[in-house]
Write a structure and sequence with these properties.
mainly beta; 190 residues; 13-stranded antiparallel sheet
């Protein structure tokens, strides 16, 4: 009926999911937490409690990251991720997120990348950007993460990216479809 970990710690674990649609692996995973309710009314989830996880390295759908970390707190209404970060390429990704505990699992994320490859989000579902190299990104998005329903038609968001050559683009996603995206330059004209 229920399962709650009053206190847990993990050290140097390897966690792998080989699902071909989105394979991932986390290497040397460490973590700790308290009062983490993982099963409620015969349903798996993160229903309450808190946890902090970090690892030496990870790969998410063929994108390698270094030193990923995550801190979360869950209660009856929401799972809040207050710190989600990882190094990729020469830069860093940092995010916050919230996931509703209601059945539709309304999810919101805010992601910032500094000095990251412009194609970092492509393997995670955002279409390829028409600018290349390293740069900065800002993404805000929301969608419903349900077990038996597709995610893409529920995703709305906005991405702003600027590469090292000062080319920039802003794209909007509505119902999983990207629009807009004319490349402009922030360089002054002579």
């Amino acid at each position: 009926n229920s399962l709650t970990l009053k206190k847990f710690s993990a050290s140097r674990n390897l966690v792998i999911d080989i699902d071909p649609a989105f394979p991932w692996q986390i290497t040397a995973l460490d973590g700790y937490g308290a009062n983490l309710e993982l099963v409620q009314h015969h349903q798996w989830g993160v229903w309450s409690g808190n946890a902090t996880l970090n690892a030496a390295a990870a790969t998410f759908n063929r994108v390698d990251v270094r030193r990923p970390s995550l801190s979360l707190t869950a209660n009856a209404s929401t799972v809040n991720i207050s710190d989600l970060s990882a190094f990729t390429g020469k830069g860093i990704l940092e995010a916050t997120a919230s996931v509703s505990q209601l059945p539709q699992r309304q999810t919101q994320i805010s992601l910032n990348g500094r000095g990251v490859p412009m194609d970092v989000l492509q393997q995670w579902g955002w279409p390829a950007l028409p600018i290349a190299g390293d740069g900065n990104i800002q993404l805000t998005a929301s969608g419903n993460i349900q077990a038996d329903a597709p995610l893409k038609p529920t995703v709305n968001g906005q991405l702003h990216a600027v590469n090292a050559q000062k080319q920039q683009i802003t794209q909007t996603m509505q119902a999983g479809v990207v629009s807009g995206g004319e490349v402009t330059s922030t360089e002054p004209t002579l």
